[in-house]
Design goal:
By secondary structure, the protein is an alpha+beta fold. It has helices at residues 4-22, 47-58, and strands spanning 26-31, 65-70. A two-stranded parallel ribbon has the order 1-2.
Length: 72
Amino acid sequence: AHTLGDEFARLADYLALMAVRMGPRLRVRLDLPEPLAALPVPPLLLQPLVENAIRHGLEPSTRGGEVTVRAR
């Protein structure tokens, strides 16, 4: 079983690595309400979406930008 909390933790690890690479050009907001953390989800549900957003949107830009991931 893989939970949304696990998915957000994996995503936070990936974003920490990207923050080292991009520095202040990458701003991140992760919002996971505690009641949703135990919900089951498929593994690697969010990371490919965030990777693409960074690779094709933020990384090429000299200004960078913000990635926001919210669970509702």
